[in-house]
Amino acid sequence: MMEQIKILIDLQEIMSRVRVLDADKRRVPLEVADLKGLFEEREAKFLATQKEFEQLKKDRRDKEREIEEERDKVEHAKAKLMSIKTNKEYYAMLKEIEQTKRANTQREDELLAILARYEDAEKRLAEFQAEVDDVGGRYRERMVDIEARMGSFDKDIAVLDEKKAEVVKRLDKGLARRFEMIFDRRDGVAVVPARNQSCTGCHMHISPQLFNLLQRDDRIHTCPNCNRILFYEAPVEEASGK
Ligand SMILES: [Zn+2]
User: Is residue 14 assigned to a domain?
Assistant: First the structure.
């Protein structure tokens, strides 16, 4: 068999192993896809609750400040009462104080409602935090293992890539390029034997002319149908007879 064909067969073997490792490596993260999904769902719930909690915190502060300001107004008005000279003014002021107090009672009710929601959100936030920590911990633990396994695939692939570079060096540059193109387009099978006057890559019949050329084994030929590089393979009984 031609030396270049032998090298191509070696190259195909190496590249096929890289392909398998690549595919296996890509499947590794799928093992934690469920856990990742769960983690992201819990995290989203936690973040939404955190946002709600922060808003309630702000509402609570605003409401408390409002009540405080209105209380100050009442105190101020009460102090002013002492200095009022006429009855009319006095009663007007009393009326205003009463109105402010009533409005503040309303605000205090609102504050109580906010406080109830605030405490509820605070409780939920703590629960979700615990869930996120739990799922997140398990997820990170699995990821350490996943990354280690992916790293080991990378190491094996790097070794094969080095081997591949060595093998490619021994090939004619144009042929190497052509081989890689066919390899990518033909699903990792770029060099195939011709058997029983057929291409074993696409199973198309090969003309007797081309078959004869292949048997001479002195030049690179490709299948006219699938473009794979062909080489002659003697029938089994003929080969074993030798
Ligand atoms: Zn073919």
Answer: no
Clarify whether residues 90 and 206 are in a common domain: no
Domain end among 168, 193, 214: 168
How far, rounded to the nearest angstrom, does the alpha carbon of residue 32 sit from its chain's CA centroid?
11
Could you tell me the residue range of the domain that residue 216 belongs to?
A: 172-241
CB 164 within 8 A of CB 1: no
103-156 pLDDT tens trace: 999 999 999 999 999 999 999 999 999 999 999 999 999 999 999 999 999 999
Q: Is residue 195 part of a domain?
A: yes
Residue 189 CA to ligand 1 centre (angstroms):
10
Ligand 1 centroid to Cα of residue 203, in Å, is: 6
- Provide the domain count of the chain: 2
pLDDT tens for each residue of 154-206: 999 999 999 999 999 999 999 999 999 999 999 999 999 999 999 999 999 99
The pTM (predicted TM-score) of the whole model is 0.69
Distance 221 CA to ligand 1 centre (A): 11
Cα-based distances in Å from 42 to 54, 60, 61, 142: 18, 27, 28, 17
Which are the contacts of 147, defined by CB distance < 8 A and separation ≥ 6?
none
Domain limit, last residue, from 123, 142, 168: 168
CA of 196 to the centre of ligand 1 (A): 13
- Position 237 scores a pLDDT of 67
**Residue 64 alpha carbon to ligand 1 centre in Å:** 82
Q: Residues 102-115: pLDDT tens digits?
A: 999 999 999 999 99
